[in-house]
Model the fold of this input.
Amino acid sequence: MAHARAPGGAAQWFAVYLLSLAAFCAYIDPAWRKTGAFRWPILAGSSAIVVEQTIITLQSARGVGSHFNAATAFDGALYAVMGVGSLALLAMAPLVAMGLARHPGQRPIQGGIREAIVIGLLMTGVLTLATAGTMAVLGSHRIGAAGEGAAAWPILGGLGNPGDLRVPHFFATHAMHAVPLAAWAVARWYPLRRGTVLCIAAIYGAFVAWVFVRSFGGVTIFSRQKIQLALQN
Done:
């Protein structure tokens, strides 16, 4: 994840990410959680979060950007450290997914929901790597001048900005929440089979891809004018 978790801010995203992983870990076999195969990657990812937040705070205090900033050798080195740290913290998601799939604990959880959580975590890893990697290659979260200087929306933040790749990045990182929640909602009305979970995951993946394509084309998924007209009517 090569860019701040806009539109919520890095610190808020880190908190949600860690709390979510902690909740999912409760359904993993405690014996496996004590092994080095689990503890060391989790320690590395958690340490990376501390380092990344420290760099963001430092660069903010210096009055410069932390992401895509290679103005000086020092800035470039800090950004490189953040990139490595981002990979470490992102790696925690597929690790927890593997634990849920291969080392389930004794706490009861519906099979379909477990599958949805595993798939959602894996999707967070893959989709986030794709969207963040694109921003890293481009050296910016904006496509051209689209969205430059656009004001953040109340609640939605930057989700209404055209040509802003943080929008698909936002939805990519939250696959770990969206897929299980959608599966839980469906399970209240229909039997949750493997095919149903895969269908939910495919729909969400297609949605993230659609948002990515639109953002890459400089188009927003939320029209400020249309929303304002709808609220007025």
